[in-house]
Amino acid sequence: TVHHIDHDHSNNPEDGSNWEMLCLYCHDHEHSKYTEADLYGSTVVAGEDAQKSVGEAKYNPFADLKAMMNKK
């Protein structure tokens, strides 16, 4: 499904820079964030900058997988 990154369906640049391809589940999830924000009082920021404050994931659940599989 084509998704407008800034959620503005009238913003359709010729180079497609405001679009991204999402699977149907991800597209529905992207739009449900706004419904949930309305229902539960949180805020949602659209666009690429929205996740910058979250930070980088550091935990890797598979980091020691090889060692765990070699245990006897």
From TrEMBL:
Signal peptide (residue range): none
GO molecular function, one term: endonuclease activity
Record-annotated HNH domain positions: 1-33
A single Gene Ontology CC term: cytosol
Protein origin, superkingdom: Bacteria
Pfam name, any one: HNH
Entry keyword set: Endonuclease, Hydrolase, Nuclease
Keyword Hydrolase in record: yes
Family from the record: Belongs to the HNH nuclease family.
NCBIfam families recorded: PRK11295.1
Protein name per UniProt: Putative HNH nuclease YajD
Organism: Klebsiella michiganensis
Lineage start: Bacteria, Pseudomonadati, Pseudomonadota, Gammaproteobacteria, Enterobacterales
